[in-house]
Design brief:
117 residues, four-stranded mixed sheet, 4 strands
Length: 117
């Protein structure tokens, strides 16, 4: 299982604590040091059947600085995924990826449904 996070993010810290407390094994990856690639984002979107808007960090400073609220509605999906792949801070986090699940953000009810590998 892959856990993509920003270590300073309190939501990511809560998700990691939940995984550890529930004895899940996972590989941790810092989203800033090694941001998701276009190919990964596209594959995760399809595998997890994740709506594009759920993959975007709409509460980040970069989102506001780039005025993405105004720009995103006119962009094609491929363009959005390409943009997200340029900077991990644009991507909703944490991301939890396994063979059968892809979750963006942390909601304990969703994590509670995860099967251990």
């Amino acid at each position: 299982m892959l856990f993509v996070c920003y270590p300073k993010c309190s939501t990511c810290q809560k998700a990691k604590k939940w995984l550890v407390d529930n004895s899940f094994e996972f590989e941790e990856r810092n989203i800033v040091e090694e941001h998701p690639t276009f190919e990964e984002l596209k594959a995760w979107k399809e595998r997890g059947n994740v709506p594009l808007k759920k993959m975007i960090n709409t509460s980040g400073m970069l989102y506001r600085q780039m005025q993405l609220k105004e720009k995103l509605p006119t962009m094609q999906e491929e363009e959005v995924l390409q943009l997200l792949s340029t900077n991990g801070m644009l991507v909703k986090r944490p991301i939890l990826v396994s063979e059968d699940i892809v979750l963006f953000g942390f909601r304990e009810k969703e994590y509670a449904c995860i099967k251990k590998d």
